[in-house]
Design a protein that fits this description.
Blueprint lengths: L1 H12 L8 H11 L19 E2 L2 H15 L3 E8 L6 E8 L8 H6 L16 E7 L4 E8 L6 E2 L20 E5 L8 H6 L23 E2 L6 H18 L4 E6 L5 E7 L1 H10 L2 E5 L11 E7 L5 E9 L4 H14 L7 E4 L3 H10 L4 E4 L1 H11 L1 H6 L3 H10 L4 H14 L6 H8 L26 H8 L6 H28 L9 H9 L2 H14 L2 E7 L3 E8 L7 E6 L4 E4 L3 H5 L4 H10 L34 H23 L3 H28 L1 H4 L16
Parallel strand pairs: 11-14, 14-15
Antiparallel strand pairs: 1-5, 2-3, 3-4, 4-5, 6-8, 7-9, 9-10, 10-13, 11-12, 12-13, 16-17, 17-18, 18-19
Helix pairs in contact: 1-2, 8-9, 10-12, 12-13, 17-18, 18-20, 21-22
Length: about 700
């Protein structure tokens, strides 16, 4: 018996957390526990009534393995012995929080004992096995799975089961789109009604399950209830809002692994402001470990907006691939020009596969955070290291300057042999500011970092908050932000900003830009008055050296083409922020440019950013079949219909105009339909079924 226990202990030691051989370890332990004959090798699964074990030790070992996976500890409780030979005939194994502490024992003895933290909470979770004869075996006669306290799921992963199909093929993806739940969507939704398994665990992730290191309400059915509540909430929201979209990913065991959702407002906003997107995974850097992430952006009022939310249960390439594919489907298939994320090989591989033409950049704040984490010993010794790295990342204006600053930091702190820094340097084009300033990457996003989700986590989430409560609170925050956007729209439309100069350019900008963007432009315009310009090159293209008055600081070169009256600056502010810089505005004043040309007014910053009169036709992927093209056209028109409905439901007058225009458009579509049928009659000719004579039956 002792040798068997030691062997079982050795097998359990091989069940390492996050190891690659979990399934093999489970099979080995199942064989050692004598479960191969019953086919119950799935150690870590809950026991069932009538399950048989060769010994009570094997039963306890099996229950402990299940407890490790479920997130609680086990102790041996009651036992019963035979009156004939005093051998055990019943053993009971319970949760360590079973029962209650007994204070009367201390009162009876009169001794004052040191107060200890008690963990007894009256939990009833237990398993009881009873010995049966001929042959001797131990059978599960009682099993209570429910706990009366939160349990913490451990960090572990398991490899994907053999033969699991690609979730992107559609078989393992449940998609629910309120905008497409008409003729094309009802049958699909009914056919793919999800079955929620007891746990949605990481599947094949090196860090799989790490997000479940949070406390989850487990009364009465643990994760199953939480996931089911979330899905019920999403269904209810979709029923109330036709434009609501949600989808879930399930594994081969039909367990929900990832969930994505986006409301109608988010999907509409993406059409106007989806050029620059941040995939915000702030939860990973907090102590809360909530499996939550969001696609974020910035609107024309410089307010943070959300393009969709998700619960990411594991960080694998397959999960991220599914997530980005699903998000694109919800957003109408339009790829963003820029996607900013944290560093991660699985995420990078998924983005390269799903968004090959999107510029992928790393969050610079995340790079600084990683530097502090990876170089913690150096940070403790040198307090100036953080400032030097920050200047290298953000302040370098040219590639040569960045290289010089980087070499200075490496040599100053003796980091030339640091392998992690070398790998970071190899990806510098994805995080160093000097490599990004030539393309649209709104610098204004940096001012919105206080709105990131970390602040929301601290205010609205703790370790005991149920997932459904968290999501509903997040939706409330989104509703309040929609109200702020509406207030900003009203302020921009019905009030005028204060002008600080009689300039025509300032007055023009005030009539075009939203209030928040105008104040940014106004600051650049006023600051331009404090700069001087020296002509350094004459001809068709004039070049000026522009610098601040009475300051020996940095200077910038502005090129002005006298033929087309266009200007460029080496600071590249217009390229990355979409707003003219103070240096170009100073040259405009010198050369006599009195108004802003149309190419210098970026529509996403104007009052009309969301007023797209004619929606762009969605490009179709090559090789689609005709039914697939029908579905794509249907989805595209559905999103346009959402936009039309939001614009038309503003006032009684606007509503009547929208209805009249809609009726006219509907008549035009019907006319085009019948015109198409008349021109392609052969396509629509179908043989009529032969009618059989109706049979009558004489009554007896």
């Amino acid at each position: 018996m002792a040798e068997q226990s030691r062997a079982e202990a050795e097998v359990r030691e091989n069940l390492t957390v996050g190891g690659e051989g979990d399934r093999e370890g489970d099979e080995a332990l199942g064989l050692r526990l004598g479960l191969a004959s019953t086919g119950a090798w799935a150690v870590g699964k809950p026991p069932s009534m009538g399950m048989e074990f060769p010994t009570p030790e094997a039963a306890r070992e099996f229950y402990c393995a299940y407890a490790d996976r479920a997130g609680f500890a086990v102790r041996t409780d009651k036992s019963r012995r035979s009156r004939r030979d005093d051998s055990f005939i019943m053993r009971r194994f319970v949760c360590t929080r079973e029962g209650f502490h007994r204070p009367e024992a201390e009162a009876a003895t009169g001794k004052v004992k040191r107060k200890r933290l008690t963990i007894r909470e009256g939990c009833m979770a237990m398993v009881e096995v009873t010995r049966k004869e001929d042959p001797e075996r131990w059978v599960v006669t009682k099993f209570v799975p429910h706990h009366v306290h939160p349990v913490a799921l451990p960090v572990y992963s398991r490899p994907a089961p053999t033969g699991e199909v690609d979730v992107l093929a559609g078989e393992h993806t449940r998609t629910f789109d309120g905008a497409t739940s008409g003729a094309l969507g009802e049958s699909t939704q009914a056919a793919t009604e999800p079955t929620v398994a007891p746990a949605a665990v990481a599947n094949g992730a090196p860090n799989g399950g790490a997000f479940f290191n949070r406390v989850i309400r487990a009364n009465p059915a643990g994760v199953r209830d939480e996931v089911q509540d979330v899905l019920d909430y999403l269904r209810k929201t979709q029923a109330e809002s036709p434009g609501f979209f949600y989808a879930m990913q399930v594994d081969s065991s039909n367990c929900v692994t990832n969930v994505f959702w986006a409301d109608a407002k988010s999907r509409m906003a993406y059409k106007s402001f989806g050029d620059a997107v941040t995939f915000d995974t702030t939860y990973r850097k907090t102590k809360y470990m909530m499996p939550f992430a969001a696609f974020r952006g910035i609107n024309h009022h410089l307010q943070g907006i959300t393009f969709g939310c998700c619960l990411v249960m594991d960080e694998t390439k397959s999960s991220y691939t599914w997530l980005f594919d699903t998000w694109l489907a919800a957003m109408g298939g339009r790829h963003p020009d820029l996607l900013v994320t944290d560093q991660g090989k699985a995420m990078e591989a998924a983005i390269a596969r799903v968004l090959p033409n999107t510029r992928h950049r790393f969050c610079q704040r995340n790079i600084l955070s990683l530097c502090k984490q990876k170089l913690s010993d150096v940070y403790m010794k040198h307090i100036n290291l953080k400032a030097d790295l920050k200047e290298c990342i953000f302040d370098a204006e040219t590639i040569e300057e960045f290289q010089a600053r980087w070499d200075y930091v490496i040599d100053k702190y003796n980091l030339r042999d640091n392998a992690w820094l070398q790998s970071l340097y190899e990806s510098r084009q994805q995080w160093a500011w000097v490599y990004q300033k030539g393309s649209f990457f709104p610098e204004l996003l940096k001012s919105q970092r206080s709105e990131r989700l970390n602040k929301f986590f601290k205010m609205h989430f703790n370790m005991k908050t149920p997932m459904l409560v968290f999501i509903s609170r997040f939706d409330q925050v989104m509703a309040s932000r929609y109200e702020k956007e509406a207030q900003a729209n009203f302020t921009t439309a019905y009030s005028k900003p204060t002008l600080k100069t009689p300039s025509v350019i300032e007055r023009q900008a005030a009539s075009i830009y939203t209030r928040a963007v105008f104040y940014v432009f106004q600051e650049e315009f006023i600051e331009s008055l404090g700069y001087h310009a020296d002509k350094i090159e004459d001809g068709l293209v004039l070049k000026y050296n522009v610098a601040r008055e009475e300051e020996n600081g940095r200077s910038y070169v502005v090129s002005f083409n006298q033929l087309d009256r266009k200007a460029e600056c080496t600071c590249c502010k217009f390229e990355y922020a979409g707003i003219l810089c103070r240096h170009v505005l100073r040259i405009f004043f010198i050369v006599g440019v009195r108004t802003l040309q149309e190419e210098y007014i970026v529509k996403r910053w104007t009052m009309d950013a969301e007023s797209s009169v004619v929606p762009e036709e969605r490009p179709l992927e090559p090789g689609l079949s005709f039914p697939e093209r029908l579905v794509a056209w249907y989805n595209d028109l559905s999103l346009d219909g959402l936009t039309y409905g939001m614009r038309g439901a503003m006032s009684p007058e606007v509503y009547k105009a929208a209805k009249a225009a809609f009726q006219k458009a509907f008549d035009d579509v019907v006319a085009a339909k019948y015109q198409h049928i008349s021109e392609h009659q052969d396509m629509y000719k179908m043989p009529l079924p032969k009618l059989q004579a109706k049979r009558t039956h004489a009554k007896a």
